[in-house]
Amino acid sequence: MPGYGILDADSGRGLLPWSWATERIANSHNYWIATTSPDGRPHVMPVWGVWLDDGFYFSTGKTTRKGRNLAANPRCVVCSERADEAIIVEGVVEPVDDPTVYARFADAYKAKYDWPVEQATAPAYAVRPQVAFAFIENADDFAGAATRWRFSDGPIA
Q1: Measured between alpha carbons, how far is 155 from 19 in angstroms, rounded to an integer?
Q2: How far is CA 36 from the centre of its chain?
Q3: In angstroms, what CA-CA distances link 38 with 64, 105, 134?
Q4: pLDDT at 157
Q5: What is the Cα 90 distance to its own chain's centre?
Q6: Cα 57 from chain centre
Q7: Residues forming a β-bridge with 47
Q8: pLDDT at residue 69, rounded to an integer
Q9: What is the spatial distance between Cα 101 and Cα 80, in angstroms, rounded to a whole number?
């Protein structure tokens, strides 16, 4: 990141571990999801979701703007609710068609939000990370802890 004073991995505090990011993703209550409409317009909306199987799972109707955008272009960005410990995940959405996987998503969603979802009425999607970023707002930590992860064969441990 030229111009930001970002330190290399061997300087300062050091890069953040992926476990730091997934803990914050999992514990976030609200998330922002950004999609792109077929004509190129950006669309951002808050959603509820769960971190499960190294991916972000959420539900939205197929006819919602998010659903239509994702049907045309499965690339999206998901952000946790806290900007002071920001987690940004760029990925590709996959519909959750497997009833066993959907049941695990529904159980985790119900436990987190006390709100039921059913496959027949609430389609679910899984965002598989391709790139993720983390930033800590604190000026003492930002330059030494800003971190990027790249996932070629899925998330790292």
Answers
A1: 11
A2: 16
A3: 14, 28, 29
A4: 41
A5: 7
A6: 8
A7: 31
A8: 97
A9: 23
Q: What percent of the chain has pLDDT over 70?
A: 83
Could you give the domains of the chain?
18-143 (2.30.110.10)
3-state secondary structure (DSSP) of residue 36: strand
Which of the four pLDDT bands, split at 50, 70 and 90, describes residue 17?
confident
| Pairwise CA distance, residues 42 & 31, whole Å | 16
Of the ranges 24-28, 69-73, 128-132, 134-138, which one carries the lowest mean pLDDT score?
A: 134-138
How many angstroms separate the CA atoms of 2 and 116, rounded? 46
- Nearest-angstrom CA–CA distance, 117 and 26: 18
Residue 84 DSSP symbol: T
